[in-house]
Design a protein that fits this description.
Chains A, B: InterPro entries: Creatin/AminoP/Spt16_N, Creatinase/aminopeptidase-like, Creatinase_N, Pept_M24, Peptidase_M24B. The structure is a homodimer of 391-residue chains. Chain A has 391 residues and is an alpha/beta fold. Chain A is built from 10 helices and 14 strands.
Chain lengths: 391, 391
């Protein structure tokens, strides 16, 4: 069940409507999640320069490395002649760049006229060299920041997408159970990661797993004061706490989930923090409904923490959906005090309370979809500090 | 066993020697593999803007998101005061960027003087916005392409690094065995990927696994004409061929490995192609020795294929070592007709014959280290078209 022609046509139409509102005559899309969203294209080819050009009218043009262009029609719903492959001789050269070639092709296809062309200056895979090649090759263009235009189009999910998000949530919940079960005295972090990754790829009955945009994060013991260290052969000791942050992925849709597990009786400081965190998360979930403003929902959280004399400067979450390495966030809504987005049905968010204190920490999260009158939980795990006796 | 102070000092000294030869007064490093190489820093924080500034003299300065800066000293061998965290309020803002803050810090630390500053225009995680923020904030700088300066320093491995490469090779070989064992009639690609990923994270006796920069690639059946489609719930049919391309990773070092497996008796066309490929790979390995020129070694391969009336435009491999998503190649040596690099002991290469024909294909590879008089194989798997009866 790839996205239907109608689904993709609707996505493209909404993208173009937003382009027109922004006064854009064309859009250069490089973010692999945006590329997938607009065409269905899906492959690990984003480490080489590639782009989708979206004109205001007419079929988009996909330009990528020849070896990838040859198979792109297997996932991208585009005519074969709109998928162009640049020659292998342009890969990793000092004096030539694939986007020199892309610029020539865009010119030959009639897209070199004067106009405002949006691009994605904060996308991970638009390199500075790629950008300069477009500037040089298409001097007629006025390249302007699209301000994550397609990412914003992605914010509200279709019924088709919500089904994929539910599948991703089920995979996340199963992967979390696998991770928790692997926690035991003396267990190595890499073995816990192995159990999680096995569950992530396998999936659950009727929902196959896909690769998540980020590997499992396992902040442990003292180093739980920082969230993004990856797994090592470090062994767990009795009395330590470990946070698990992972995502379930299903057909590129992601539902992240975080829990903290104490191996043996938790220390009182951590148990107290975990309880405050869980109460705060519950209050936030109750405040999440259509019409609410993100900043106000964040206020519920900030006030709850303030009552306990805790300050947490990092945001409380972000929008989710399609994800590719290195990030599963959509880079649009951030749950914090300055985000004035009005919540709408169909938005999906990862609400993550990451409490990274000096020398200890805990994480607790849910992935949710906004419904007509509140919140649908996509993930399912006990919302508490989990204690493993782990003999 | 993280890299020793001496090892890191040597890497920095060789980087600075090359900077001086290139007339650079400083270097902005963003590529996570280069950052790891120069400091030991290792975490999944590269999806947010971060940089290492390397002056010609004095200690480098690491600038990253505050929540990551707080734990960076756990892996980075830098003084605590040389690790700076930008405030959370700068994350994903429309009108401010973390590198505005970084530019101010670089100025305050005395690095705003006029000079030629190298940067990495083709690094994956230097976004266009990041680059523009540096241009704007440090107008004294003449920002020039470093031409992957640190990547080239990484090309010849130290004895310490070669040990890690051998460990990575052992993990790769074990993961390949796990993948081959999972191939059976009706097996789903995602379940084969699950078995591989479990083995990749677990590692082998005495060598723990690490996450590879790329997920297992499993080009299958007709779609084996393109290399980078990722796994799905597609089931294997008897008579189909599947290629497995994976890497073993150990403490961020990567040894990739590719094999092709036929489920049941291979078709004659594929068997013939596989035999030609294996002979060619053997001839190339025999030609790989210190003093040889990469282009000449590639000529052995090209001539071998020409004898069989086959043309393969893509390169035959690339240098390997430290890897982070989305790529495990070092972006320096490419084994092809125009690469004039002279082979030296300590170089590590992934020699990959990827034969993507119309509607079928095979892959065969080895990861190698160049020794004083030839080649050390890092990977260990039967070098042939593997046949699984897989009832």
């Amino acid at each position: 069940m790839p996205p239907s022609t109608e689904e993709l046509a609707d996505r493209l139409a909404r993208t173009r409507a937003r382009m027109q509102r922004s006064g854009l005559d064309g859009l250069v899309v490089v973010d692999p999640a945006n590329l997938h969203y607009l065409t269905g294209y899906d492959a690990w080819s984003f480490y080489m320069p590639q782009l989708l050009f979206v004109p205001l009218t007419g079929e988009p043009l996909l330009i990528m490395r020849a070896m990838d262009a040859g198979g792109a029609h297997r996932t991208a719903l585009l005519s074969r002649e709109r998928i162009l492959g640049y020659p292998e001789s342009l890969v990793h050269q000092r004096d030539a760049h694939p986007f020199d070639w892309a610029a020539e092709q865009l010119r030959e296809h009639g897209f070199a006229h004067r106009g405002r062309i949006g691009y994605e200056p904060e996308a991970h895979f638009l390199t500075v060299r790629s950008f300069h090649a477009l500037e040089r090759g298409l001097p007629e263009w006025q390249l302007v920041d699209s301000h994550d235009l397609v990412n914003w189009v992605r914010l509200v999910k279709s019924p088709y997408e919500l089904e994929l998000m539910r599948g991703a949530g089920r995979v996340a919940s199963a992967a979390m159970r696998a991770g928790i079960d692997a926690i035991a005295d003396g267990a190595r972090l890499n073995d816990i990661a192995a159990a999680i990754q096995f569950a992530q790829a396998t999936g659950v009955e009727g929902v196959e797993g896909d690769y998540p945009a980020i590997v499992p994060m396992l902040p442990t013991g003292e180093s739980a004061d920082t969230p993004h260290m990856t797994f090592s052969a470090r062994r767990l000791d009795r009395g330590e706490a470990i946070s698990i942050e992972l995502a379930g992925a299903h057909r590129r849709y992601h539902a992240p989930l975080a829990r903290t597990v104490s191996l043996g009786r938790p220390d009182a400081r951590l148990a107290g923090l975990a309880e405050i965190t869980a109460e705060g998360l519950q209050a936030v979930l109750e405040g999440m409904r259509p019409g609410a403003v993100v900043a106000d929902v964040h206020g519920i959280w900030r006030e709850h923490l303030a009552q306990h004399s805790i300050e947490k400067p990092s945001r409380l979450g972000y929008s989710i959906g399609i994800g590719y390495p290195p990030d599963w966030g959509e880079r649009t809504v951030s749950i914090r005090g300055d985000d004035l987005t009005v919540i709408e049905p169909g938005m999906c968010l990862h609400i993550i309370a990451g409490m990274w204190m000096e020398g200890y920490g805990c994480e607790l999260s849910e992935s949710i979809a906004i419904t007509a009158d509140g919140v649908e939980l996509l993930t399912d795990a006990p919302r508490e500090l989990i204690v493993r006796e782990g003999a």
